[in-house]
């Protein structure tokens, strides 16, 4: 995985939310939470697994809505932040935070109703392995996001040493089919990369986001969108 050592540092976990989801970044946080809820809600009394849960932004949100949720991450420091977030929200009894490897999930087949991952597949060296594991432990639904190869992310990647893995629609569909998943919905957003919104104040971010959303609703906007959200269902065994 790209950036694994950086991600696990205590200082990164402590500052993660403040650096990424304040100022213009709050628009990213809001949209990502909307995307998760649109894909997986309602979750009351459902068993949910979040891969790469980080500081528990989505984990706590779904626990507040009644999910019995496990948040799995490779970073102890991130998990500590998640536990504190759950404690403050009063939902610790609905969440189990675990340190683990997304390529070898420590759960039996069909253990969860829904499995999802946000901000994960752009770092994946072997996405097929991770997606296959997500499909294996889910009995119903898988949801994740990707960064796109037809967007401004191409330039963003060129400027950053670590970069991100970029995907096209056809590649995602192949990955889903190989994992035994069928695509049920896809949504595309953010013509301007996340990094732009994080750097600007609210007074600039708000009008830019409004224009971004309008353009994103066009055919060209969907092609140039930097982020895609994918919802898939687990295919039944045709032999039964």
Automatic annotation (TrEMBL):
Gene3D superfamilies, per database record: Vaccinia Virus protein VP39
Occurrences of domain Methyltransferase (ranges): 48-139
Presence of the UniProt keyword Protein biosynthesis in the record: no
Annotated CDD domains: AdoMet_MTases
Pfam families, per the entry: Methyltransf_25 (PF13649)
Keyword Thylakoid: no
Superkingdom of the organism of origin: Archaea
PANTHER family: METHYLTRANSFERASE, RHODANESE DOMAIN-CONTAINING PROTEIN
Stated name of the protein: Class I SAM-dependent methyltransferase
Organism: Halorarum salinum
């Amino acid at each position: 995985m790209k950036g694994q050592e950086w991600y696990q540092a205590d200082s990164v976990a402590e500052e993660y939310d403040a650096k990424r989801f304040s100022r213009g970044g709050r628009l990213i946080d809001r949209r990502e939470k909307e995307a998760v809820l649109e894909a997986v809600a309602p979750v009351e009394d459902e068993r949910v697994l979040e891969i790469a849960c980080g500081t528990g932004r989505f984990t706590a949100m779904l626990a507040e809505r009644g999910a019995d949720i496990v948040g799995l991450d490779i970073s102890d420091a991130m998990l500590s932040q998640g536990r504190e977030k759950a404690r403050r929200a009063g939902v610790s009894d609905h969440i189990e935070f675990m340190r683990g490897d997304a390529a070898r999930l420590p759960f039996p087949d069909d253990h969860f109703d829904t499995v999802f991952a946000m901000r994960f597949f752009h770092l994946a060296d072997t996405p097929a392995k991770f997606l296959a594991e997500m499909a294996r432990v889910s009995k119903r639904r898988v949801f994740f996001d990707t960064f796109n190869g037809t967007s401004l992310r191409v330039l963003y990647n060129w400027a950053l040493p670590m970069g991100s893995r970029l995907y096209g629609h056809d590649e995602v569909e192949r990955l889903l089919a190989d994992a035994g998943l069928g695509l049920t919905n896809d949504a595309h957003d953010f013509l301007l990369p996340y990094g732009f919104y994080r750097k600007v104040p609210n007074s600039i971010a708000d009008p830019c986001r409004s224009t971004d959303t309008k353009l994103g609703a066009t055919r060209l906007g969907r092609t140039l969108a930097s982020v895609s959200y994918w919802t898939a269902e687990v295919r039944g065994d045709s032999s039964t």
